[in-house]
Write a structure and sequence with these properties.
There is one protein chain. This protein is of the alpha/beta class. It has two domains: 46 residues; 246 residues, Alpha/Beta hydrolase fold, catalytic domain (Rossmann fold), CATH 3.40.50.1820. Helices cover 37% and strands 17% of the residues. Strands 8-7-6-5-3-4-2-1-9-10-11 form an eleven-stranded mixed beta sheet, with helices on both faces. The longest helix is centred in the first third of the chain and has 36 residues. The protein starts with a helix and ends with a strand. InterPro entries: AB_hydrolase_fold, Hydrolase_4. Pfam families: Hydrolase_4. One of its GO terms (molecular function) is palmitoyl-(protein) hydrolase activity. This is Alpha/beta-hydrolase. It comes from Coemansia reversa (strain ATCC 12441 / NRRL 1564).
């Protein structure tokens, strides 16, 4: 067989010569092919990276179906549509206590959910927090999630969070309540960002299984891309942002079996936060759950007991909120469907886009349960 091959190329000497002439050509074409394929692959990753970071359509029907709080034992809620400054309409729930007076007196938790699904998927967790902490709960579906308009991005979601904060601080029932941000995974990054930028508005921050930054998480999620993290347009640099939080108490809830976000990310965030605050005051609290994975840490035994214990010390004992006068620039427009458990009422402009001074005139106790009572527009079955 070897004789036939050598004869074909004209003998051994000619065969070696032919091979040497062929190698540079083969190397050239293989190199060009590799570069083209790699560039194409990186281009596809770059173009579609937001779809990878924000899988808003998962699980199925997440963009069409959003559960109601009343389906989980929370009948007193407003279904809110907020228009952001860049003209995107996002959806949210303001889940209230049984009466307006109770709502005004209770703290308010703003819930920032993880990167898949919508706010409706988190209602069972919101119910536990609602009961354990005795708080109001404001939830939102970021742009591009649930029934909200638009497409998700870091800049857009920051605007969504700030718009939600503006709404809470302009609403007559929540304008002077103590406010706590709660974030899971990606929602933790959103929570850190909004608290770092508006620390005086918050009485507490709760973080579960969040990360240092998107580029630093890529090697553990997609190892093949660990050398091209510089291409990431989405940063969510919580490692840097958390160092700007100097006075807000923080509760860290870490699942040690987290298969998505490496637990050392949470630990490092905790250490950075602790450096900024006096540990003697126990303002920065670490709780770990040895069997907790990325998605089931919140169902581990004692999870909500830990939240309730921290809440009692950090939030209930905190000084009353004093309006800062730093909000009000966005003037987000909103409309709301109000639920009393049976009827859902449609009301234009729930917060009436009032200024901070107008809000202060109204609170506390200026609005009675009978003021501006809406007319029932429709009745829906929960």
């Amino acid at each position: 067989m070897l004789y036939v091959i050598l004869s074909y190329f004209g003998g051994a000497e000619n065969t070696v010569s032919s091979i040497w002439r062929w190698i540079p050509t083969a190397l050239y074409y293989s190199t060009v092919t590799s570069v083209v394929v790699s560039t194409l692959a990186l281009g596809i990753v770059y173009v579609f990276q937001r779809d990878m970071v924000y899988p808003a359509a998962f699980p199925a029907h997440s963009r069409e179906r959003v559960s109601l709080p009343s389906q989980f034992g929370m009948p007193h809620f407003d279904d809110i549509r907020l228009e952001t400054p860049d003209k995107v309409v996002i959806r949210g729930y303001l889940i209230k206590r049984a009466t307006d007076e109770e709502t005004r007196c209770a703290p308010t938790l703003i819930y920032f959910h993880a990167n898949a699904g919508n706010m409706g998927h988190r209602l069972p967790i919101a119910k536990h927090l609602y009961d354990k902490a005795g708080c109001n709960v404001f939830m939102l579906s970021y742009r591009g999630y649930g029934l909200s308009e638009g497409r998700p991005s870091e800049a857009g979601m920051r605007t969504d969070a700030l718009t939600a904060l503006e709404f809470i601080r302009s609403h007559p029932l929540t304008a002077t309540t103590k406010l706590v941000a709660y974030g899971q995974s990606l929602g933790g990054a959103v929570a850190i960002d909004i608290v770092a930028g508006h620390e005086a508005e918050f009485a507490g921050l709760i973080l579960e299984n969040t990360f240092l930054s998107i580029p630093k998480m890529i090697p553990s999620v997609l190892p093949i891309l660990k050398y091209v993290t510089f291409l990431s347009s989405e940063q969510w640099n919580s490692e840097q942002a958390i160092q700007h939080i100097e006075n807000v108490p923080i509760l860290f809830l870490s699942g040690l079996q987290d298969e998505l976000v490496p637990p050392p990310h949470m630990r490092h965030l905790f250490e950075l936060a602790a450096r900024n605050q006096d540990e003697k005051n126990k303002r920065i609290v670490w709780k770990e759950f040895t069997q907790g994975t990325h998605n089931d840490t919140c169902v581990q035994p004692t999870y909500f007991d830990c939240v309730a214990a921290w809440w009692k010390e950090a939030v209930d004992k905190a000084d009353p909120y004093v309006p800062t006068g730093r909000l009000g620039a966005l003037e987000a427009r909103d409309s709301v469907e109000k639920s009393d458990g049976e009827n859902i009422y449609h009301v234009e402009s729930a917060s009436v886009v009032r200024s901070l001074s107008d809000t202060e005139k109204d609170l506390p106790g200026a609005l009675s349960d009978t003021d501006d009572e809406p007319t029932p527009m429709q009745k829906k079955n929960d």
